[in-house]
């Protein structure tokens, strides 16, 4: 791995373009490094994972809206177009709109993969735009696997080095550049072209974190899809010879100087050198439960504690000792009254660890639909328990969250339950059971089981088998086979929504 110091440079300094972070990422995208078997295997797993959560969300409002918008934009003369989850492969739309529809479907349930370091990310968001362009441009499976590996690498490396949330910038600001880099790999583009696309993608996908604060709306699902769509459009402009603001990160009026740590900031970004494997995908992890990632271990812990707390009416208080992030983003440290509101949106509830622990403790399980139903959230005994739960930041859990060794990072916490007779029940869990270091790390059978569970009643067994058989051969697929990476919802009629402009 190479280490690069990234800092602000005044315009008059004459900062060389080949030392800019955007140029280094474009060089990484252009390097013909081989994909290892382990990386290819994990890419397949995450394509399955994305398809699983996408088909489970096809009837939800944001996904219906995004699909309707995509259907209004058929493929143009520049390529074959791309497929949309739920629809037959013969139905093609413009690739940027397929990325929009499919990216929204993948993100809607907050149920696919994650990487947590200095910044948070859902690197599986790279997959929909890269698949869409691969289908449109006639690339093969091997090229797509390489592109996905590069997209993951760039997003993970940026998230490891550069914190966005401390400055209230949404994490998709790392996604636009990572998709653009992946597109450079997919299309075999010159370094200069990918460099311009990366700069444009960053410039057009930087927004505030209000999308994840207070009354969280459906934009949380749209945000990464917008980043993928914007990156495709940026690459189209770059291919046509158009440029980007530069230096986009290091300029005196750039992202670092005015949106992040300021003119004196210094970040160390580590990137693979020439020929080194792009294996960052192996440091990421998916979700067993449909909720914010920091809730994963605490759901598992609450399920285990249920046998020790058979009557939750006797609970006097529950205190969750956890990391700064969990406390301030999904805990009481956020200061969001909406996180305690029984009438809150699903998007808000999946960012309320108080609600999540209450339901998991009472039910002994977590379900992507049932656990969020309004009647579940408004049940009086649940509301009473929910409002007895608080979080506190524990410096040790914060330290473990940011441990430089990914094998030692911890995203859980310690739960202290006090009953009405003074009995105290306590336990802790560092990582979710499905985490690579957890009790039951996810492997191919788990991804397949997740897909079959979420596809039940939406996708026939024959169509499930067809998709799983095809994706298992992803690195060997020819260009004419990539349209099979969609999944047809052949057991239901897909709804349409209200009319819009298109």
Automatic annotation (TrEMBL):
Q: Does the keyword Lyase apply?
A: yes
**Per its UniProt record, what Gene3D superfamilies does this chain match?**
2-methylcitrate dehydratase PrpD
Q: Where is the MmgE/PrpD C-terminal domain?
A: 289-473
- Give one GO term, molecular function aspect: 2-methylcitrate dehydratase activity
Which Pfam families does this UniProt record tie to the protein?
MmgE_PrpD_C, MmgE_PrpD_N
Which sequence ranges are marked TM in the entry?
Answer: none
**What keywords tag this UniProt record?**
Lyase
E.C. no: 4.2.1.79
Q: Which SUPFAM superfamilies match?
A: 2-methylcitrate dehydratase PrpD
Chain ranges of the MmgE/PrpD N-terminal domain: 20-267
Q: What class of enzyme is it?
A: lyase
Matching PANTHER family, A to Z?
Answer: 2-METHYLCITRATE DEHYDRATASE, 2-METHYLCITRATE DEHYDRATASE-RELATED
Q: Which family does it belong to?
A: Belongs to the PrpD family.
- Could you identify this protein by its name? 2-methylcitrate dehydratase
């Amino acid at each position: 791995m190479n280490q690069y110091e990234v800092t602000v440079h005044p315009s008059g300094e004459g900062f060389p373009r080949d030392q800019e972070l955007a140029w280094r990422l474009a060089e990484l995208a252009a390097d013909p490094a081989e994909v290892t078997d382990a990386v290819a295997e994990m890419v397949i797993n995450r394509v399955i994972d994305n398809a699983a959560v996408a088909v489970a969300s096809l009837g939800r409002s944001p996904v219906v809206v995004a699909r309707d918008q995509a259907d209004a934009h058929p493929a143009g003369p520049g390529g074959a177009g791309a497929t949309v989850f739920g629809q037959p492969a013969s139905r093609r739309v413009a690739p940027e709109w397929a990325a929009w529809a499919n990216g929204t479907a993948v993100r809607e349930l907050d149920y696919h993969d994650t990487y947590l370091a200095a910044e948070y990310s859902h690197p599986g968001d790279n997959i929909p735009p890269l698949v869409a362009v691969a289908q449109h441009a006639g690339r093969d499976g091997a090229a797509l696997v390489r592109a996905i590996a590069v997209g993951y690498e760039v997003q993970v490396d940026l998230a490891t080095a550069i914190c966005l949330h401390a400055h209230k910038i949404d994490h998709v600001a790392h996604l636009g550049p990572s998709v653009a880099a992946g597109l450079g790999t997919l299309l075999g583009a010159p370094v200069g072209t990918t460099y311009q696309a990366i700069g444009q993608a960053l410039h057009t996908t930087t927004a505030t974190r209000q999308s994840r604060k207070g009354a969280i709306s459906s934009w949380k699902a749209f945000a990464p899809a917008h980043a993928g769509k914007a990156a495709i459009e940026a690459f189209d402009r770059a291919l046509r010879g158009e440029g980007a603001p530069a230096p986009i990160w290091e300029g005196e009026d750039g992202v670092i100087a005015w949106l992040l740590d300021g003119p004196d900031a210094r970040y160390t970004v580590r990137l693979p050198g020439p020929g080194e494997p792009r294996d960052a995908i192996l440091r990421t992890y998916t979700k067993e439960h449909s909720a914010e990632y920091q809730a994963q271990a605490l759901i598992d812990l609450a399920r285990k504690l249920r046998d020790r707390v058979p009557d939750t009416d006797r609970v006097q208080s529950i205190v969750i000792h956890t990391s700064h992030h969990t406390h301030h983003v999904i805990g009481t440290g956020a200061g969001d009254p909406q996180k305690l509101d029984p009438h809150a949106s699903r998007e808000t509830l999946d960012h309320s660890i108080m609600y999540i622990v209450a339901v998991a403790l009472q039910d002994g399980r977590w379900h992507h639909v049932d656990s969020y139903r309004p009647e579940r959230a408004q049940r009086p005994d649940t509301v009473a328990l929910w409002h007895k739960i608080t979080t506190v930041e524990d410096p040790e859990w914060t330290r473990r969250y940011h441990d430089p060794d990914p094998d030692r990072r911890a995203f859980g916490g310690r739960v202290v339950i006090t009953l009405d007779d003074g009995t105290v029940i306590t336990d802790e869990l560092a990582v979710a059971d499905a985490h690579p270091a957890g009790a039951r790390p996810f492997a191919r059978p788990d991804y397949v089981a997740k897909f079959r569970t979420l596809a039940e009643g939406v996708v026939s067994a024959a169509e499930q088998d067809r998709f799983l058989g095809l994706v298992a051969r992803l690195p060997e697929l020819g260009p004419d086979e990539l349209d099979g990476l969609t999944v047809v919802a052949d057991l239901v009629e897909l709804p349409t929504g209200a009319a819009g402009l298109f």
